[in-house]
Amino acid sequence: MSRPSDYVDAGARPQQDSPNPDVVQTNLGFVGTLRFIWRQLTSMRTALLLLLLLAIAAVPGSLVPQRSSDPNGVIQYFSDNPDLAPVLDSIQMFDVYGSVWFSSIYLLLFVSLIGCVVPRTKHHFQAMRSRPPRTPARLQRLAAHTEVTLEGGNAGTAIESAHALLKKSGYRTELYQGRDGDVSVSAERGYLRETGNLVFHSALVGMLFTVAIGGGMGYAGQRVVVEGQTFVNTLLDYNSFNPGRFYNPDDLAPYSLSLDKFDVTYEQKNLDAYGQPIDFTAHVTTRLPNGDTEDRAIKVNDPLRFEGTDVYLLGNGYAPKVTVRDPNGTVVWTDSVPFLPQDSNLTSLGVIKIPDGLDEQIGMIGFLYPTAYELETGAYTSTYPDLVFPVLTLNVYTGDLGINDGAPKSVYELNVDDMTQLTGGETGVDSIELMPGQSQELPGGRGSITFENADPDAAVPADANATTADFSSSVARFASFDVHRDPTQGWVLTFAILILGGLLTSLFVPRRRVWIKATDNADGTVRIEYAGLARGEDPGLGEAVDALAYRHGTALGLQR
Amino acid sequence: MDLNELSVLSLWSAMAMYMLAFIAFALDLARRSADVTAVVNEAAAGQVASASSSAEAAQAVGSSGRPVSTLVRADTDAPQVQARQSPVLRVALALTVLAFLLHLTAVVTRGVAAGRVPWANMYEFGLTGTLLIIAVYLVVLLRVDLRFLGTFITGLVLVLLGIAAVDFYVEIVPLPPALQSAWLVIHVFVASAGTAFFALGFALSVLQLVQNRREAGDGDLQKLKLKFLATLPTAERLENLAYRTNIVGFILWTFTLMAGAIWAERAWGRYWGWDTKEVWTFIIWVVYAGYIHARATRGWRGSRSAWLAIIGFTAVMFNFSVVNLFFKGLHAYSGL
Ligand code: HEM
User: For the whole model, what pTM was predicted?
Assistant: First the structure.
């Protein structure tokens, strides 16, 4: 079968293991050595060891956070284990699946795979065209064997009908004349089994190549969009953008996407899950350069497939709108600022930076409590994720925001090392505390700050004591979208289907040889032997041989 | 009583029945040992212990009188000592079926009460997964006599159900948006079905190893510690059964992996990201691919490949328990 030298048929009866033929011979010569190495590499044993090695090598990546899937976890790990982390990092423990050692294992495995599959494919093509082999002399030695002795008739007619029966059953057949005057038909079926096996292994190679190339052909970008805002699919408009090696960002599909409304439904009936979100829907409008617009919805588990890109809804939260005025009442800054959710009741943390317009730069670290509740300590907590009683608290800092040198800084972080705290903490000054629609003076006459009410119907600024007021639309929400393009995804799916299909045929199509031999006995009876040989796992072989014998008997006119 | 309470009640009743079935299966094993001892004593008394059947020519009764004789194949897989029919084994099976029906009731009522498929958190996977183990076992029993595995299967299911009922129980809550997908239905169900086949294959592989050791000995029944082993199929037959069970599991697992990737693409925007749960699903897949290869590699058939199947199933259990509960990742759905 042109399989590796240490291949044993998984369906065959185990024999005494013969000694390993691959013992190192002396004096191989250069070519001989190469050939020896190649044979070793493409042997079943090597494939097996590499497979097991691959399984073991994959383990550490689940124990230690990975940069690819959990970058913050890695940073955390470094600060928790300052001594161990650099050591682990030097052996690529935080990039296991792209590491030199992991890659070498799977590349070797695939070299072995190709080296194994190519000769087998060649051989398989030949096998499909060759004749079924000569009938063995002693059929009764085979595991699946049965025989009948018939009165009347002769060997020739018996084999003719056996031949017809086997052909009808999808076997490839060949007639042989034995030395002892017997006639026989040799038949083989189940080439599909080997075909399935080869398709399976080749599709694995295809999958590896597609995945390797696919990563370089597309891109992934992230963008946070507040209700009412529009995102234009250009490089500049992304918050972060990771192009593949072969991707040209000029090729971005020209379209824009507006977040009209972000709906969240919270569970209110089931007390065991009170306040648990049960639906997120981003209502968006897509717009093409030709002016075509369309209303679409994006949900978790239900991305928007648009213009060759896929837009996923990955996160959401509140984006309170804040306006800052100078002491004269002139607006120096106004914006909706996405606050990052910190817990399931959406206590959210955000940063506001006012670089210009005031005497000094101002930075604020704010907490938004959608349904604020004052603890005994005086601190707030949120008790429900929806906007029932929203409160925004802000600690104000002055000094250098550190953004003048042009170095990019995260919009979600404020470095207060070089700044002076004005409110909250140990300053003795109360933090700024606002409900939607309210304003407050910044400390030291630096101006004022307003927490805008996003609800157009909220005419009067709500009174802090007015717990009956409806705040449900007072703060806008934001959605964070992941935009991906991966033109090879269809290929990955195709190879996956080939892998599964190949596997099914190779494991369940029985490949077997059967022989039917007829001999005229001296006493005028005819001895007919039926025998089968499994090639690969074939639990149904015995039954199949019995069934053939039965049907052949019927065809010969045996009464049942 | 509401439906969920009914579900819990059925579950505990099912566990009680599994307990009784377990005891009955254990009694059957004890009885088998007694049978073997009896055979040993008879042999010692000078009688010939009729061991395995050998090839015998049987006269065929063709009404036309034309066939003269047919040859009957020898059964090389027959156990060393044939176990006798046993009433306690029938009781054990009846109890298992009864327990299965109660178990099924528990799963169905849980699903109806929740208004969705009953496999959306660890408690529910525990329930449905073990139900599938029993279902697969009962279906396989229709074709192959694996009743000797009853103690193992009911015991395993009992332990898993106990852990699920005591440690993983959660009230019914609606599905979070991340789990609202048809792929939850497909992916998780197929994974549980695959696990059920692996569980059966695991049991067979363990027995194969034990039987292997027995066969490697001198065959003296008197010295045998677990006497009932002499009534079980040969190691080779156990190996073949394990292989057939495990490859069905492997195919289901392959599908699980792919369905998971398709779902991950819809939910997280990438079909593969080496998330911890993905890593372990991959590891399990590779270990079983290794197992299949081992069966076809000289020097690896038999015990070594059985060890790989055992490692594979251990990884499946690890993936379900430790990875779900203690590893950080995107698959945060244990409900605990
Ligand atoms: C990525 C690595 C590989 C994986 C995941 C893998 C997986 C599998 C699986 C699942 C099967 C059983 C299904 C079937 O027969 O199609 C199989 C069978 C087989 N593989 Fe691989 N394989 C890999 C590499 C290799 C290599 C490198 C070789 C050659 C040295 C090889 C040779 C074989 C052979 C000969 C069989 C048939 C076994 C039998 O007759 O039962 N495979 N492989």
Answer: 0.88
